[in-house]
Amino acid sequence: MTTRTLIRAAFWVATLSVLVLSLLPTSTPLPSTGWDKSNHVLGFAILAALGSLGYRRQGLKVSVGLLAFGVLIEVLQAFSGYRFAEWGDLLSDMIGIALGILTAWLAGRTLPKPR
After folding, report:
1. Distance between CA atoms of 49 and 45, rounded to whole angstroms?
2. Number of structural domains in the chain
3. Within 10 A of 45 (CB to CB), how many other CB atoms are there?
4. For a tag site, which of 25, 42, 66, 114 has the least CB within 10 Å?
5. Is the residue at 56 inside a domain?
6. Domain for residue 81, yes or no?
7. Is residue 115 part of a domain?
8. Confidence of residue 114 (pLDDT cuts 50, 70, 90)
9. Cβ-contact 70, 80 below 8 angstroms
């Protein structure tokens, strides 16, 4: 299995994990940074970095897809009855996407290219 395949697998596992964690009831104990907005930044930074490294030359598609994923999560939360959609969460997602892309770009400049 190639490094790129492993990175792509990690991306999809992380994507599913973010979706599940985002839709669990708030009464469920969840891993946290201690602040909701930093949870969003961290989660989407990881997704963007993995997506950018796993799907090189498709960075724009990865970014737009992750932004759409963030919107989907907020819509699903609005309909959940126990979670709330917030514009601040979406802004935090966008900041995370930007940081993840920057991280992947820096890693791409310093690490050997995965096969």
Report:
1. 6
2. 1
3. 21
4. 25
5. yes
6. yes
7. no
8. low
9. no
Q: What are phi and psi of 29, to 5 degrees?
A: -65, 125
Q: Are 10 and 55 in contact (CB under 8 A)?
A: no
Looking at residue 109, its pLDDT comes to 75
- Checking if the pLDDT of 106 tops 60, the result is yes
Q: Is 28 among the domain residues?
A: no
Rounded to 5 degrees, what are φ and ψ at 26? -65, -15
CA dist., res. 110 & res. 91, Å (int):
29
Task: Kindly report the pTM of this predicted structure.
Answer: 0.91
Among 48, 41, 15, 39, which residue's Cα sits nearest to residue 93?
Answer: 41
Which helix (H) or strand (E) element contains residue 76?
Answer: helix 59-80
Give residue 50's domain range.
3-23+34-110
Q: Which amino acid is at 103?
A: T
